[in-house]
Amino acid sequence: MTLVKLSLAAPLHLEDELVEQFLERPEWASGFTIFKAEGYSRHHESLSVAEQVRGRTQRMLVQIVLETDNAEALLEHLRQRFPKRDVAWWLEPVLDFGRLA
């Protein structure tokens, strides 16, 4: 079993919609963590004037540890059911994963 960490960065207003996509397929994403974040992108046409002045926008960052095959399936599901240009994603290898108790 090869584990990866899937990270998705998205605008705050998409949080509920994105979480719904994960909850539709719990076999792929049985657990996830959401962080509030700020981000910058050179693609800033959708930013408000205030965000452009600040130089960043409020975002959310979702992290999910899952098997590689499930990450690929979840990404394909999101591409089909949730195609959003302002959602960025990346995968990172996970060396080990467990619970402390």
From TrEMBL:
SUPFAM superfamilies: GlnB-like (SSF54913). It comes from the Bacteria. InterPro entries: DUF3240, N-reg_PII-like_a/b, N-reg_PII/ATP_PRibTrfase_C. Gene3D superfamilies: 3.30.70.120. This is DUF3240 domain-containing protein. It comes from Parasulfuritortus cantonensis.
